Amino acid sequence: MIKTFRSIFVVALIVVSSGQIWAQQKAYDWKQETEAGYTYKYVSNDPTHARFYTLKNGLTVILSPSKKEPRIQTYIATKAGSKTDPKDHTGLAHYLEHMLFKGTDKFGSLDWAKEKPLLDQIDALYEKYNATTDADARKAIYRDIDKVSGEAAKFAIANEYDKMMGNMGAEGTNAFTSFEQTVYIEDIPSTVVDKFLAVQAERFRNPILRLFHTELEAVYEEKNIGLDNDNRKAIEAMFEAMFPNNNYGKQTVIGTVDHLKNPSLKAIREYFNTYYVPNNMGVIMSGDFDPNVVIKKIDAAFAYMQNKPIPAYTFDAEKPIQAPIVREVKGPNAEYLFLGFRFPGAASKDAQMLNLLGSILTNGSAGLIDLNLVKSQKLLGAGAFPYILKDYSMLILQGNPSKGQSLDEVKSLLLGQLEKLRKGEFSEDLITSIVNNERKAQISRNDSYKSRAEELMSTFTSELDWANELRNTDWLATVTKQDIVDFANKYLNDQNYVAVYKRQGQDTDVVKVVKPEITPVSVNREAESDFLAKVNAMPEDAIKPVWLDFDKDVQKGKLKDINVLAVENKDNELFSLIYRYNIGNWNNKLLGLAANYLEYLGTKTKSSEDFSKEFYKLATDFSVSSGNEETSIAISGLNSNFTASVNLLHDLLKNSVVDQEAFSAYIDRLKKSRINAKENKAKIMEGLRSYARYGANNPFNYTFTDAELDKIKAEDLVNVLHDLANLEYTVLYFGPKKVQDLVKVLPTLKATNAVFSKAPAATAFKEIATDKNQVLFATYKMQQVEVFWLRNSEVYNAALTPTVSLFNNYFGGGMGSVVFQTIRESKALAYSTYAYYAQPAKKENKYFVGAYVGTQSDKFTDAVQGMNELLNDLPESVKSFETAKLSLLKSIASERVLNAGILNSYLQAQRLGNKTDIRKNVFEQVPNLTFSAIQNFHKKELSHKPYVYCIVGDETNLKPEDLGKLGEFKKLTLEQIFGY
Fold first, then answer.
1. Which end of the chain, N or C, is surrounded by fewer C-beta atoms within 10 Å?
2. Residue 607 placed within a domain
């Protein structure tokens, strides 16, 4: 939920050796133009070339053309969210968002005339249910709701929206609700604009609240997930304390348990009719299109919408915080602290200054908190995050204690950084560095049609001035150190904050949403409405796919005896440089420790802090990462700073020296991080999955015990880092230089004429055969229970790729898949569920079957049974199969592998032994695949096979006899899972 520093900076800036910045000033002024019969506004010198239209009915349309890829990122946004929920129906905006995927009277229904009377009965039953207080009477009414809902579902087509979008080749079908926005998301091929607009215009015309009680159960599950999420609870506590007069604090996005259990379909429709009006909505699109053509299409599609007055949201101003307000939240995860300070809203100049202040504190490299608390290892982790909203903003500081630290000590350290800020104990150069880094970030954002659309959507829903956003760099260059000091003293002191202590322990106040009695409903997979047939029949041009030619698209060169792979960046001045080693933690367990230790090292002439500051001043990101079988050293930044960045990198790698104090702190923090990992359910599940794939000794627990850690010396880690200079590596480069020019200026790490050292042999981990049903169980205090099915299959075979790709799309790959439609839509057993046949990373590795359900503990048996039925018997749906095929083909045809992604694809092909772009094989063979082909594949690889059930849940809510029925039961200790 935390929004980071995302203001827009586009002025051309050049870093010179002294660290000064020369800015070429540009005018960002609103202008107006009329073209193709439509008047629009635009901002001069806008790199996104965005056009801002207001149609006759008040609908805002923002169009940003980009020809780089034949796709379009779309957002349809309503400026209404949880803040405008009725106080007696909190969570309404969110579950309305869910219902806008269910169709209208024209699609989603087999027979609207027969369905409508049943839906009217359900409406009346819910109103009766809400007015009834007697528990037994309520249960009786809900049984009636369930019964009538089952009858109504016989006339519903549960998945028609997803089918239509799938047939178009849409990706990322989703939506989200926040405090003051509800946004609907699609990424479509550029050739299906007519189809897309036909569906979206109809979607918002007359949404029908069908299949409501099963969808509401999915929202219940989402609520229960939130009850298990310590971070969400801590954030909600922060907002509640910070905003007692505003619905930011008085209401939550997902709503209260009581309100979720007492929904009103009447209230939902009233909300829709009030806020889903054109003068409160925006259509934002960025991608491959002609705006003159698209604006006419949008106007025609949404002209039916009627402009209506929107109720003003009013609230009493918040009173200044005179003394610390303290809240406490409990949960199983490791403890931490939030500190929050209140600021003015998004449109104010103070909100812009807040973004800058956030970067002064935390920018990942050279902020006060970065250097004084993280790099100096005074805390396990810490950061500052601006949270910008329309009415108010916040600065949230987070601190994670090291071993033995109290949360009060964390608070003192965080407040100490604010004191430094108020006293001006930071360099004026830091502002210069922030500007330069924002320039780099903006170049990257403008290069992506997806990022452009997201920026423009956020500007619309927050009601910001785009011209002012574009002027931010010019404004930022005028900000002085004294301005920041004055601002900090105005808003930040040792008394005007909210503190949320996230303690470790059981939250006894949690009341979960209890499972209602729901009879599975029909999903009518084979049905299709006249509207869907009409949309499918609309003409569209085919997109010609573009395949990678590894011989042409990847430039190959030699830097003495080092292989260089390069892709030229012809669009901008960004570069990325990676030194890739074919060794990892399996070769030397010290590698991972050394890679992380490097962050705290310097040389004889430069401190670790000096390196962080210099990299940040150059706008260069630097990282070292060690995986199981590969290690990468990477930098990325501006081409104008390429040489300086490389020299800085080489200096650190080759000349780093032991820092004993930093080493001791690093080991202590590492031990604390390892303790925290054991308190994280996602990490526990990761460990169970590794155990299921490889056995008791596996990559996840291949690590040092605490006793072994104590024997490691700082010199051991520094020696590992220095040895990297003498090991064989491959250079991966994406940037403006051609490979022949790159090798002329790029120095080598190893000494001239030195021979590469031999890498240590790797410990081998092989997937074990899944020859019997097993249960691997880890207990964790939580409302839900998570289950992951895993079965190791056969060794990689490139010939299987088309079948595997189509099978995954049909079976478990999205909202239109068989798994999602059955487990969630029909049976209401989970909020999140999926399944897939996973491709290995290397040709020597095996595929594996993976399936997941996160559900309430009282639904555990039904959820497991539901997934097992699907794993054993593949439901056949001709329509869904054709949708899966069309979706896959159109996605591949419109996909463009670009930039550094070309290098990644080439390396992936090498690992798998493929000489060519495997997508070509998929595209050419999928049209000929029949349902029987994937059915036979399902029978061979999934049906009635043994599985390992990886289960994380509260053992007090799960019956041992139920777990034992699934297979040979083994309850694992945390030491068995983690290896320490």
1. N
2. yes
Gyration radius (Cα) of the chain, Å: 29
User: Within this chain, do residues 498 and 566 fall inside the same structural domain, yes or no?
Assistant: no
The four Cα atoms 138, 140, 141, 145 give a dihedral, to 10 degrees, of 130
Q: How far is CA 17 from the centre of its chain?
A: 37
Secondary structure of residue 17 in the 3-state scheme: coil
* pLDDT tier for residue 11 given thresholds of 50, 70 and 90: very low
Q: Are 245 and 173 in a shared domain?
A: yes
pLDDT digits (tens, 9 = 90+) for 302-352: 999 999 999 999 999 999 999 999 999 999 999 999 999 999 999 999 999
How far is residue 935's CA from residue 941's CA, in Å, rounded to a whole number? 10
* Element spanning 487, H or E: helix 481-491
Torsion (CA) 962, 833, 938, 963 in degrees, nearest 10: -10
Q: Is residue 49 part of a domain?
A: no
Q: Tokens 């053992």 identify what position?
A: 955
Residue 826: other Cβ atoms inside 10 A: 22
Largest Cα span, the chain: 87
What CATH number is attached to the domain comprising 579? 3.30.830.10
The total of structural domains in the chain comes to 4
Domain co-membership, 789 together with 829:
yes
pTM beyond 0.70: the answer is yes
List, for residues 276-295, the tens digit of each pLDDT value: 999 999 999 999 999 999 99
Q: What share of the chain is helix, strand, coil (3-state, %, to 5)?
A: 45, 20, 35
Name the residue range of residue 697's domain. 550-745
Q: pLDDT for 639-689, tens place per residue? A: 999 999 999 999 999 999 999 999 999 999 999 999 999 999 999 999 999
Same domain, 644 and 558: yes
**Do residues 127 and 235 both lie within one domain?**
yes
The last residue of a domain, from among 745, 760, 788: 745
Q: Could you tell me if residue 524 is inside a domain?
A: no
566 and 652 co-located in one domain:
yes
Same domain (yes/no): 555, 482: no
- Is 888 exposed, middle or buried (CB count within 10 Å of its CB: 0-12, 13-18, 19+)? buried
Q: Which residue shows structure tokens 């009601």?
A: 463
- Contact indicator for 801, 825 with CB cutoff of 8 Å: no
Instruction: Give the torsion through C-alpha atoms of 303, 85, 338, 316, to 10 deg.
Output: 100
- The residue out of 724, 745, 766 marking a domain boundary is 745
Residue 741 carries which side chain, given as an amino acid letter?
D
Question: What letter represents residue 883's amino acid?
Answer: T
Q: Which of 353, 346, 378, 348 is nearest to 434 (CA)?
A: 353
Which alpha helices (H) appear in 100-250, and where do they start and end? 112-131, 135-153, 160-168, 193-203, 212-227, 230-242, 247-250
Q: Please state, in angstroms and as integers, the Cα–Cα distance from residue 509 to each residue in 31, 227, 251, 859, 897, following that order.
A: 56, 10, 18, 22, 50
Q: Burial, 313: exposed, middle or buried (Cβ in 10 Å; 0-12, 13-18, 19+)? A: middle
Tokens of 455: 């920026």
| Residue 185 is assigned to a structural domain of this protein | yes
Residues 102 and 70 in one domain: yes
Going by C-alpha positions, the residue among 832, 773, 780, 692 that lies closest to residue 958 is 780
The identity of residue 53, as a single letter, is Y
